[in-house]
Queue: 2 jobs
Job 1
Amino acid sequence: MQILEVRSLKKSFDNTEVLSDISFTLDEGQTLSIIGSSGSGKTTLLRCLNFLEFADSGLILLRGQKFFDANDAADRSDKAVREKTRHFGLVFQSFNLFPQYTALENVCLAPKLHLEKGSKEEERAIEEEGRILLDQMGLSDRMDHYPHQLSGGQKQRVSIARAMAMHPDILCFDEPTSALDPELTGEVLRVIKGLAAKNTTMIIVTHEMSFARDVSDEIIFMDNGVIVEKGPAKDVIDSPRNERTRQFLENYSRNA
Amino acid sequence: MLATVTATLLGGFLTTLKLFALTLLFSLPLGLVISFGSMSRHAILRLPVRFIIWVVRGTPLMLQLLVIYYGPGIIFGNPFWNGLGEGRFIAALVSFVINYSCYFSEIYRGGIQSIDIGQYEAGQVLGLSRSQVFFRVILLQVVKRIVPPISNEIITLVKDTSLARVIAVYEIIWEGQSFIKGAGIIWPLFYTGVFYLVFSGLLTLLFGYIEKKLGYFE
């Protein structure tokens, strides 16, 4: 079943067009990876989906319903955005964990603040779920650690748990392993693979081509703000149809 | 003699402490409000606030005391602050609060602007409101960063209170000086230094403790 449809999304910064006419769809339970060189617009696309940027024009539909219309000012109000943003989770390249909270507190902060009344039982239930999430991330012995006491890979796994605690419909990753030492990327990629195996709907911006090939159902290749190629993951990586995709992948494997 | 002098100086030091504590009580929160004004997206708010900060930081505190004490009387044509000790104390307090709020606001602004934008974005994508992001995520990180410059400013305030004597607030220096005219001795004036030293020593310990308390995160 289709969960997300993006229609003709456009975004410019100071007269430079970063996204020009982006359209794609995503089915529930599928993993979509977005690849492309720096400056191709893939991070901006993710930020538009999470309302950290507003698209200049275009439409986002969720489960077939109009979700965000760039031309409707009401969709940009603080309150509307706060409501909408909960449908998307975002895992940042640089983690952005809250340093003054422990791993568990990082995971539980937002769900607790969203409680209407916040009774003790509700808070306990959230903490219990936070523990389960961190346990799934392989961090059962790190729950009470502060971010500065964790390795990069552990921090990123906490931030994945933090995003999941809000039960987003779609979980987005913005180059989740780019800030990690090479020997730490594996543990994060394994966790994301585990989520894919459980049919979590995900959009992943990544530079890890073999990972994208293995984990994704579909891959989008972006260049200069347009989707150049979209198709089943193995097809795009192993036998790209477009010349630019081929060049990008060749350069990539030469440098990797 | 020492006992009499100590008792008199203690009386003056009580006024010093009162001025110190009340200044902090009002200027620490007011500084935060001013810092928001100085960071406002709206120029109509930001520019006047920055102008006031420029004036307050760009002129001597002693001059500000004199302007606040005598200025309103000149403009409104009659004594604005009642000439008794109470009126002079309030005039001094107002001057100190204005002056220190502006200095604190610049420290807050520096602290707030030093926080990584990613912290705001992380809060936003988790659906937190602006005020939740500020009070639950940003504020404590700002506090941790500004404890050293704020403590510096607070220790300066301890000694700046002595400026209040220019409008005849009977703080400790005033009392120490009174022994020159009254008893022909100058050592009580020098002795006042001990009171300042002990008090700022205690404050240094307190700030060290707070810094240590906030050391649990980075």
Note: Chain A is about 40% helix and 25% strand.
Job 2
Amino acid sequence: MRYLLRRLGHALLLLAGVSVLTFLFTALAPGTYFDEMRMNPQIAPETIAALRAQYGLDKPLPLRYASWLSSLVHGEMGFSFAYNSPVAPLLLVRAGNTLLLTITSTLLAWAIALPLGTWSAERMGRLPDRLLSWGTAMLLVIPDLALALGLLVLAVRSGWFPTGGMASVGFETLSPFNKLRDVALHMILPVTALVLSTLPLLFRHVRAAIADILDAPFLLAALGHGIPKRTLLYRYALPAAANPLISLFGFSIGMLLSGSLLIEVVMSWPGLGPLLLEAILARDLYVVIGGILFSTFFLVGGNLFADLLLYWADPRIRTESNAQ
Amino acid sequence: MKMQRALTRWLLALGALHGTVVCAGFFAPYDPAVQDRMYPYLPPMRVHLVDTQGHLHARPFVYQPKLRVGSFDQYEEDITDPRPVKFLPSGDYYRLLGFLSCRRHLFGAKNARIYLLGTDAYGRDQLSRLLFGGQVSLVAGLLGAGITLLIGMCIGAVAGYFGGWRDGLLMRLSELFMALPWLYLLFAIRAFLPLAVSPLKAFFLIIAVIGTVGWARPARLVRGVVLSAKERDFVRAARGFGATNGYLLRRHILPETSSVLLTQAAILIPQYVLAEMTLSFLGLGVPEPVPSWGNLLSSLQQYSVLISHWWMYLPAVAIVPFFLGYLGLASSLHERGAAYKIESRILGNLT
């Protein structure tokens, strides 16, 4: 338990650190949302100064950070200039969409990578394995951007999948089942892009981890006892190789978050990505900070989840932390 | 030995690709900014060897495109008007390697313009833009990786060599940087820098941004190597003879990190080229009219382009060999590094 508490404390510290870091970056920012208004002769400089004062932009950095923290406690995370509303509710909707995309593709990518990697490791050096290695290497070198755009071109020209957005026109009128179906259809393209962009890395790691363990004496002994190959692979080798893979699981979430930022923009999925881009272009300070914090939160959450999994899966960690 | 050959092969392939981009002025038929308002969104031209009568020609030729009757954006080949391809013609002025003023190009067409990858909305040659854009994107990747490795090396060396509170502080900071999804981090830093700047300034700005974002991983790797290198016998001996910290680092310890840094470079360069592409694609990087691989693709954000101008996607296909080359280079460098025991443990957890 202490292990988990320590990890939790670590995660919270990390989040606090990131928030400080982003605030420090804001100090470097030349200009704010209101600077655009200066160009407008109809707005008096006093008005702009008043607006700046109203949003606390004229205060020094530590004070701004303190007031932002207090608004965080109130569940607001600052105020969006462009949307004229608190940031948190704005981000929550988008974050849900991003999460939907990321979790689906994480699960899918792992569901493909685990059996495929194990299967390939068992045939190490034979034709299927070599083909798979080549295939994943090719996927690895195609940039995410090219992959996403390629899928989009394909979808648009073939008309097989809906492109762009999360819902069709008239989504509100659909029955619950059709709503689900509609969203699922819209998810196909971004999820495919995300899965294809992470799959090669996951596949390679799974393959390497399994190949490492296949020579272990206990597996040879099990083979000698006449345990069938399949049981051996999935029942004995895979759990034994799970340790580094679970750590990779946490890492893959971060990778998918970065990937989904781009893919959301390309496929106009209403997630954090497009909102963040919009906010950057409009200099909507607190939305940018909030978006970055949210993504860090997901990443830290993913790592924490991986730690939990590790705690559950690896008895060594349990005994180690209990002994302390 | 086989390893060494593979490494040479990848290096040669990459050298050829980079050479093409460095001499973009020669290989590209036109200036990347010159517009041909007669032919916006012209699909890639076909190069023919056989004419409509079935005669074989020694010199390849293209047919002059013309607007299809009754249309204002559909082209067809004017089969009555063949234009032979010329090799080594003189054309637009360019600067080879940045200073040699030249006007000789690899190919062109007599009394016509030849667009092998089609044209964009302003009738600019996509092939030329692809080649010149490569200069921008690759330089961004190379310089960015250089900056990252420099920062990473310094921080890693300080953390590993001096240890103590410096080590603790720097490693916590690196964890912070690694905790952020890197594209978000890139965005975060870009978000707080000026948006509307001149192309040159924007270029150096994004190089600086990209370069400073990724220092954490190389720093940690370098720290690992330094930690084990500073306990080696010859280093201790040198210290015993009264060598200063600076001398020890420069002469004995940092050379040990070279293989790690090389492998990291092969991994970071394509990643940073990609970062530049992403930023420019989203309009946060190098602005028009300067071409870069990112803003070459940004027109694909429009639905109409996706639907009817598929050749705008070709640059995305054309850049894949670069990434393949760097992947091959990274893996053969990795294999070579694995031959040395001290680094193999550290390189083991490369992503």
Note: Chain B has 15 helices and six strands.
